[in-house]
Amino acid sequence: MSSPTSQTTPLTNESLPSTSQSPPSCIKTNAKKSKNSNSTPPEKKPKVHSNDNILFMYSGLFLTENQWLTSSHIDFALECFDKLFTHIFMEFVFIDPTIDQIFVVNVENRHRILLTNIDPSVQEQNYNSIESYEEMSTISRKWFIYDSLNDQKNSFATKPVLKFLYPEREFHHVSMVEVIPQVDSNDCGLFTIAYAYVLSRRNDPSNLRYDQSSMRKKFNDLIKFNYLYEFDFSEVSKSRNVFPLIL
Question: Of 6, 172, 203, 225, which sees the most CB atoms within 10 A?
Answer without folding.
Answer: 172
